Amino acid sequence: METLSERAALMRESMQKSQSVTDNMVAILGSFDHRLSALETAMRPTQLRTHSIRRAHENIDKTLKVAEVILGQFDLKRQAEAKILRGPHEDLESYLEAVDQLRSIVRFFSGNKSLKSSIGVINQANNLLGKAIFKLEEEFRQLLTSYSKPVEPDRLFDCLPNSLRPSAASSGGGDATGTKPHSEHQTKSLETAVFHPPALIPARIMPLLHDLAQQMVEAGQQQQLFNIYRETRSSAVEQTLRKLGVERLSKDDVQKMQWEVLEAKIGDWIHFMRIVVKLLFVAEKSVCDQIFDHESLRDQCFAEVTANSVAMLLSFGEAIAKSRRSPEKLFVLLDMYEIMREIQPDMDIIFGSKYCGEMREAAKVLTKRLAQTAQETFGDFEEAVEKDATKTAVLDGTVHPLTSYVINYVKFVFDYQSTLKQLFKEFNDGDEDEQLASITTQDNAGSPKSEAKDLLGDDWVQIHRRVVQQHANQYKRISWSKILQCLSIQGLQGGSGSFGDGGSTTNVSRAMIKDRFKSFNIQFEELHQRQSQWTVPDTELRESLRLAVAEVLLPAYRSFIKRYGPLIQGGKNPQKYIRYSPEDLERMLAEFFEGKTSIDPRR
């Protein structure tokens, strides 16, 4: 028990000591807290001063950086000013960079107008910009003018497909364009022909012109830029046309020209249209597209540059379409109509902007006018043929000049089948093949040929072959029936008989036979003399006529000589009556229809 009491007393004593220690620690900590609070109070002013100093340093850094930027702008201004004052000739690219720097400087100080020097710097930079833009304008004018020379014709010819280039033979005179006679095959081949437009301005110059134009646009000098470009480039294009030989001709000018001269000029015009539209205008549009970024300005410039040249080209076509109609003009009108249709897709693309609308429309109007004039000219030709009242026979028996003219005319018409079909399709409803066939069948003078068969059909050809055969039969009857009577036994004996056949020579007097041979000789010599000078141009018809006569005449003559020749050969001078052998007649018949001069049948 004592032990427990002792242990309890020790525990009380220990707890009392721990409490005392705890109280002492609390007192010490409380003293520290009081001192720290006092220290904090004492340090607060120092902390505030340090923060202020740090903020001041930050403000100084920012100010120094701003000052550095401002000083940099002043430095850039001095550099730009030096370049501007030197001008653009020495180093155009550096000059353009200086202009851009000045614009950047103006924007900078315009955004920092609180700076005392901002207004002054802005004014100085703008004045300098004004001078720079003026120099740029002069540089653009000078550079564009230097490289805006007319294109030589030979250079344009070299850009054409081989089939359209002038031939070496044409350089000495004649048609210098090297154009060839019309053919539908050639027309189709042109659809795939490749044209290579020339570069009107060197490629190394184009970026400089582009940058100069861009600077002028940014400076608000768009109108001045437009004027310079229009004047310079339009002059170059018009000079190129004049070098080619393009002329502005009126209807009166056309009326005064001889047909040969006018025909040559029309051929040249057709060639010029291809060259100018497919080469020159394409190349000119490429120049515009590369220099100007702004679509509206680009389209306006191109329209103004080409307007006068387009009008000059179309004016000749208009003058021809409005001039007095004549049959020989039909085919050149069709040629002109063809070239206008050929270039129409190119015109629609090249002159596709709203500023080129009048030019597109003018080209379409000319195409329709040429088609209408061609159709009216064809109608005039038909009417003139129908009204021709000449009944005069041709002395040499050849084809009448009017018939030859009509045949040749229709032959040319066949060469323009597709063009005429397109023309009829443009103005008339219905089947254009039937319309063309109807027109060409209105005149019966033509000789059947393959083109007619293709266009008009077998029935038409067969009908006209029968007509030709009827005329051939009529010729045999009229020309040879009388002479064949000389070889008939009719009148020599009591009964009737065929040519030189049947019956005997009994009761036939030698005098009667002599008269028959004499009459035959006179008639045959007259026929030979006259019909050897006649002309049958068609070889097949000429040979068929000779053969038809020979098949009737020679057997009758042989039979007559065989039966009655002995009566003459037994008397005096038989050669006076029997002048020709059957072989002589065959040789002389071969001379018929050759268009020869007077021939002695007894040579």
TrEMBL record:
Q: Region entry Disordered: which residue ranges?
A: 167-187
Question: Keywords, A to Z?
Answer: Exocytosis, Protein transport, Transport
Annotated Exocyst complex subunit Exo70 C-terminal domain ranges read 268-443, 449-591
Single biological process term from Gene Ontology:
exocytosis
* Superkingdom as given in the UniProt entry: Eukaryota
Cited InterPro entries: Cullin_repeat-like_dom_sf, Exo70, Exo70_C
Gene3D superfamilies attached to this UniProt entry? Exocyst complex component Exo70
The entry assigns this protein to a family as follows:
Belongs to the EXO70 family.
| Function recorded in the entry | Component of the exocyst complex.
Protein name, as recorded: Exocyst subunit Exo70 family protein
Species the sequence originates in: Forsythia ovata
